[in-house]
Specification:
single chain; 10 helices; disordered C terminus; mainly alpha
């Protein structure tokens, strides 16, 4: 998937700016998206989409590179919008799962499930189960390509024992 194309290009071609983004996230306690907008004047995803346009990527791929819109999520209007929505949701869940605090990661995933419910009729426990399966597949793939799971910070975060049960009940009561 190309959702991190802008970030990857920044790391490899704009090393000084990338270092400034990393420093900005620490000193201003913000996320990389906000920092990339501040330092580069454009968020990573827009940089990636602009480069993908220049490289003549299909529009459906470019749409799938974009993040979920803010606020309430409605049903996708066509097949391309549905694929883009699923890709954006998967990317958002991945990012939520890589949050350093287990409680915060669970909370973010539960909120994504609630926001996505109008679009997919998705329950929090279904999303949590899919997230757990994807984590295990990522760890298994890392082992297959001989990358020790504890050698990469993201794999270490994915290997944590997520527990969504308490938060799922809280989410269900909040929906009532």
């Amino acid at each position: 998937m190309f959702h991190d194309l802008g970030r990857t290009l920044t790391i490899h071609y704009f090393e000084d700016e990338y270092q400034a983004i990393v420093e900005h996230t620490t000193t201003h306690q913000t996320d990389e998206l906000t920092a990339s907008r501040t330092i580069l004047g454009i968020p990573y995803f827009e940089l990636g989409a602009d480069v993908a346009h220049a490289w003549k990527f299909p529009e459906s791929i470019i749409k799938a590179m974009l993040p979920l819109p803010r606020g309430e999520l409605g049903r996708p209007k066509d097949d391309d919008a549905h694929v883009a929505f699923i890709a954006a949701l998967a990317n958002a869940v991945r990012a939520a799962g890589l949050t350093s605090s287990l409680d915060r990661a669970s909370e973010r995933i539960i909120k994504l499930a609630a926001r996505s419910r109008p679009a997919l009729d998705l329950q929090a426990d279904d999303l949590a189960a899919a997230f757990g399966q994807a984590n295990q597949l990522s760890i298994n793939y890392a082992r297959l390509v001989k990358v020790p799971p504890n050698s990469q910070p993201s794999l270490t975060l994915l290997a944590r024992p997520f527990n969504f049960e308490i938060n799922v009940e809280a989410d269900d009561s909040a929906q009532a």
